[in-house]
Structure prediction request, 202 residues.
Amino acid sequence: RAAATRRPRHDSQGADKYGTGPGGRLFVGSRGGILTDRAYLAIFHKARAAAFTAAEIASLLAWHPYDLRHAAVSTWLNGGVGPPQVAEWAGHSVDVLLRVYAKCIAGQQDEAKRRILDATGSAPAEPSSAMLASVPFKTCYQPSPADPTSEVVAHAVDNTNPNVSVAGETLLRDLSDDIWPGHGASPCHECEAALKLGRQTP
Prediction:
């Protein structure tokens, strides 16, 4: 474990700039000793909680530090780097690389579909009014956050973050059980524009 935190043989810009700890270690504990698993995991999970959405935090996504290795290798592959090169960087054979480390990265599915459409010459159809009306978004009735004195309008609630609208506006009032566009108030123009641009999906 200690060896994993020591400076590698090749030059490191970070080590050159910030120096190393006792024994040539790049990372040390708060008191200058060996960085323990417990101390590392505490920081890792704080960073995970700060970077992820509530749904991602509750999932097994990047639950262990070693998962970052899987994510890095998969990101290289999805970025178009050839498997032989990625295997060399990761220190594996191509067979092991594709069998073990080629994981799916969250959020890459839309890009993959776009590439297929580009390759086949197809184009996604524009969403119709009927399609937009069938999207099951909850409703939040409140004035525009930019002008609290304005009239109350119906905001479509982001399906992945109930604290904001589909247009990214902060929601300050309790959510309604009404399905957007709700009733008794005009629909939020920013939400309508966001949905027509396809920035939100059910």
User: Anything to note?
Assistant: Confidence is low (pLDDT under 50) at residues 1-11, 127-133. Residues 37-51 form the longest helix (15 residues). The radius of gyration is 24 Å.
